[in-house]
């Protein structure tokens, strides 16, 4: 699929009657040199497909991007060292791989705005339009599962570690792009299950 056709198709993708099960989700995480949208860069994109309640590890993408910007302090967190022996594509090549993998899927991420904004900045640098995919945020969805009570103090910010602890998800591969995407995918399935314990849930309700 050409990039031009990709964005043309994307404009008309969302059918509000599609169920959660039949929807193709792409669960996304990025590892970056920092948190500055303008100056920092993506080191790695990790993504996997979630459909029919199945996390498809076999159908996944993990691409390390060639980059000149190196921050030793963040490398200690995500472990992506400058001398890490991997054949890395250029930023534009990595973006093309990601776009082909993503297609017209709905994006799921934890604190989605960060990952999507970093990708959109990379797309902009390479003269490409920003993502138009619909997106869901597990940080926001998790709050919908919480009981509203003055006896229960809700936090403003729930980390991926918070969700992993809450749902007893292994953090073995935490702080790798594909590992965090996998944790996010499990958390999403757990969240949908909890929401369904309260009332009927469809794709539309997740966006409200």
Structure notes:
It is a single chain. By secondary structure, the chain is of the alpha/beta class. It has a single domain (22-206), classed as Nucleotidyltransferase, domain 5 (2-Layer Sandwich). The chain contains eight helices and five strands. A five-stranded mixed sheet has the order 3-2-1-4-5, sandwiched between helices. A hairpin with a 2-residue loop joins strand 2 and strand 3. Helix 5 runs parallel beside helix 7.
Key attributes of the depicted protein:
208 residues, five-stranded mixed sheet, alpha/beta, Nucleotidyltransferase, domain 5, 8 helices
Strand content is 15-25%
Which strands sit side by side, in order, in the main sheet?
3-2-1-4-5
Helix count, per DSSP? 8
Q: What are the secondary-structure elements, in order, as H or E? A: HEEEHHEHEHHHH
Q: Could you tell me the number of beta strands?
A: 5
Mean pLDDT: 85
Instruction: Return the CATH architecture.
Output: 2-Layer Sandwich
> What is the name of the CATH superfamily?
Ribonuclease H-like superfamily/Ribonuclease H
Low-pLDDT runs of 5+ residues are 1-14
Question: TL;DR of this structure?
Answer:
Residues 24-197 form the Exonuclease domain. It comes from Flavobacterium saccharophilum. The chain has 208 residues and is of the alpha/beta class.
């Amino acid at each position: 699929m050409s990039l031009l056709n990709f964005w043309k198709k994307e404009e008309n993708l969302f059918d509000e009657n599609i169920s959660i099960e039949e929807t193709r989700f792409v669960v996304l995480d990025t590892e970056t040199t920092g948190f500055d949208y303008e100056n920092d860069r993506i080191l790695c994109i990790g993504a996997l497909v979630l459909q029919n309640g199945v996390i498809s590890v076999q159908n996944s993408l993990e691409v390390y991007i060639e980059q000149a910007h190196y921050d030793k302090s963040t490398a200690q967190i995500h472990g992506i060292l400058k001398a890490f022996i991997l054949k890395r594509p250029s930023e534009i090549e990595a973006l093309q791989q990601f776009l082909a993998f993503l297609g017209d899927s709905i994006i799921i991420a934890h604190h989605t705005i960060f990952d999507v904004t970093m990708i959109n900045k990379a797309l902009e640098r390479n003269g490409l339009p920003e993502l138009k995919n619909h997106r869901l945020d597990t940080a926001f969805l998790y709050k919908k599962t919480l009981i509203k009570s003055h006896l229960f103090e809700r936090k403003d910010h729930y980390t991926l570690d918070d969700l992993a602890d809450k749902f007893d998800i292994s953090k073995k591969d935490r702080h790798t792009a594909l590992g965090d995407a996998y944790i996010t995918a499990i958390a999403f399935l757990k969240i949908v299950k909890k929401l369904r314990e309260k009332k009927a849930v469809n794709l539309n309700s997740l966006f409200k």
